[in-house]
Design brief:
By secondary structure, this protein is of the alpha/beta class. It has three domains: about 220 residues, Rossmann fold (3-Layer(aba) Sandwich), CATH 3.40.50.620; about 80 residues, Tyrosyl-Transfer RNA Synthetase, CATH 1.10.240; about 80 residues, Structural Genomics Hypothetical 15.5 Kd Protein In mrcA-pckA Intergenic Region, Chain A, CATH 3.10.290. It has 19 helices and 13 strands. The strands form three sheets. A six-stranded mixed β-sheet has the order 1-6-5-2-3-4, with helices on both faces. Strand 10 and strand 11 form a beta hairpin. Helix 12 crosses helix 16. It starts with a helix and ends with a strand.
C-alpha cells in the first residue's frame, strides 16, 4: 500500500496545525493536489529557515502533487507583519523584482519548474493592477476587522503600532489563494505557523466567494536546541545562495549543530528513509560525529549538488588532517601577497579579515582563551607575527576554536 504523504510529513515533524486533518489526508491520497507556498522577495536569497517549506514541497511533489511557488512581488510591496516587532523596510519595486528573480532561481534548483507540473508565479501580476475601490468591494467586504485584530500576527503588533499598509497584508494573501484556486485549481496553502491566520483567511474567502473547499497546513517555527532561530547564527544567516555563503560553510553549519538537533534535522532536512534516520540517531559517543557528517553531506547535496557536498566533506576531513592536503581547495580561502607575508602579519588582522573573528578585540580574547591556531599550533602571544616560515605547501591554515577553519594562500 502506497504511503500517504500526509503521514510522511507528520512523522518527520513538518505539521504544526491543519484545518481539517481527515479531509486533507483523504484529499492527498485520492487526488493530485495543487498546493502553494509564498516566499516574499525581501532579500536576494532565502536562508536555511526557508528549508522547512521547501522540503515539505519536495515531499508532496515526490508523491505526485503539483507545487506552486509564489514569489511575492506584490505582497512584498506591502510587507508581512507576522512575527515582526516593527514594520519591515520598504523596498523599491526594482529591488523587489530583482530579489524575486534570484529567489525564483533558487527555488528552481529544488522544484524544477516546468510550467506544467511545477509552477513559479509572481503575485505582482495580479496584485499590482488591482483597483483599490473595486478590491475593497469584491474582497474587503468579506473580512471582519474584529476577527483580523484577534489574529496573533496583528495582536502582537498593536502595542507597538501597526501601519495601515501592513493591515492589508492578510487581505492580499487571502486574495492570492483565491486567484490560485480559480486559475489553477489550487486547494491547499502551506506556510509557517505564524501564517495560520492569513492562510485560514484565504480558506474562508474561497468558501465565501466561490463556495469552494480548500485546506490549510502550517509548519512549526523551528529553533535549535540552544534556542537560536533556525537558519540564524551569531555570524549571520545561513544563506542558500552559494555566492553569499560558500558550500563549505553551509556544510559546516550542519556538522556543527547541537547533538540534540541531529535526529530532528535528519527528519526535516534530508530524504533519508525513517528507518535509516532512527538508526543514525542512535549513534552515541564519538559516533555522533558520523551522524553529523551524514546530515551535513545530505543537506549540502540537496542545496548545492552532490559534487559541492563531496568537496565540502573532503575539505572538512582535510582540515582535521591538514597534512594530507586533499580537499583543502574547498575551504574558504583568502589570498595575500608574498611581500605582505615577508613583512610579517599579525594573526589578529588575518582573523578579522577572514571573518574568523568579528574584531581585533575578539581575536585577542581568542588568543587568551587558547582558541587561536596556525597550522594546528596554538598561538599564545599577542605579539606573534606570521611570516614565510609558517607557509606550507598547502598554504597557511587558520583555526578558531575546534571547528572554524580558513586557508591563506600566497599569490604574487
Amino acid at each position: 500500500m502506497k504511503e500517504n504523504v500526509f503521514d510522511v510529513l507528520k512523522e518527520r515533524g513538518f505539521i504544526a496545525q491543519v484545518s481539517d486533518e481527515p479531509a486533507l489526508r483523504k484529499m492527498l491520497s485520492t487526488e493530485r493536489v495543487t498546493f502553494y507556498i509564498g516566499f516574499d522577495s525581501t532579500s536576494t536569497s532565502l536562508h536555511a529557515g526557508s528549508l522547512v517549506p521547501i522540503m515539505a514541497m519536495k515531499h508532496l511533489q515526490k508523491a505526485g502533487h503539483r507545487p506552486i511557488a509564489i514569489v511575492g512581488g506584490g505582497t512584498t510591496m506591502v510587507g508581512d507583519p507576522s512575527g515582526r516587532d516593527e514594520m519591515r523596510q520598504m523596498l523599491s519595486e526594482d529591488t523587489i523584482r530583482e530579489n524575486g528573480r534570484k529567489i525564483h532561481a533558487q527555488l528552481d534548483r529544488y522544484l524544477h519548474f516546468d510550467g506544467k507540473n511545477s509552477l513559479a508565479l509572481d503575485n505582482a501580476d495580479w496584485i499590482l493592477p488591482l483597483k483599490y475601490v473595486e478590491f475593497l468591494r469584491e474582497i474587503g467586504r468579506h473580512f471582519s476587522v474584529n476577527r483580523m485584530l484577534a489574529a496573533e500576527a496583528y495582536k502582537m503588533r498593536l502595542e507597538k503600532g501597526l501601519s495601515f499598509i501592513e493591515f492589508n497584508y492578510q487581505l492580499l494573501q487571502a486574495y492570492d489563494f483565491l486567484v490560485l484556486y480559480r486559475d489553477f485549481g489550487c486547494k491547499l496553502q502551506m506556510g509557517g505557523d505564524d501564517q495560520w491566520g492569513n492562510i485560514l483567511a484565504g480558506v474562508d474567502l474561497i468558501r465565501r466567494v466561490e463556495g469552494g473547499t480548500a485546506g490549510a497546513l502550517t509548519f512549526p517555527l523551528l529553533t535549535t536546541a540552544t534556542g537560536a532561530k533556525m537558519g540564524k547564527t551569531a555570524a549571520g544567516a545561513i544563506w542558500l545562495d552559494a555566492d553569499r555563503l560558500k558550500p563549505y560553510d553551509y556544510y559546516q553549519y550542519w556538522i556543527n549543530c547541537d547533538d540534540r538537533d541531529v535526529e530532528k534535522f535528519l527528519r526535516l532536512f534530508t530524504f533519508l528513509p525513517m528507518e535509516e534516520i532512527k538508526e543514525i540517531a542512535s549513534f552515541e559517543g564519538s559516533d555522533i560525529r558520523k551522524a553529523k557528517q551524514i546530515l551535513a553531506f545530505e543537506a549540502t547535496k540537496i542545496t548545492h549538488g552532490e559534487q559541492a557536498a563531496q568537496e565540502a566533506e573532503a575539505a572538512a576531513l582535510a582540515a582535521f588532517s591538514p597534512a594530507t592536503g586533499g580537499g583543502l581547495d574547498a575551504l574558504p580561502t583568502t589570498a595575500i601577497t608574498q611581500e605582505r607575508l615577508a613583512a610579517g602579519i599579525s594573526p589578529l588582522d588575518l582573523f578579522v579579515e577572514t571573518g574568523l573573528s568579528a574584531s581585533r578585540g575578539e581575536a585577542k580574547r581568542l588568543i587568551k582563551q587558547g582558541g587561536m591556531y596556525i597550522n594546528d599550533e596554538r598561538i599564545d602571544s599577542l605579539e606573534f607575527l606570521l611570516s614565510e616560515k609558517n607557509l606550507t605547501p598547502n598554504g597557511i591554515l587558520l583555526r578558531a576554536g575546534k571547528k572554524k577553519y580558513h586557508r591563506i594562500v600566497v599569490r604574487d
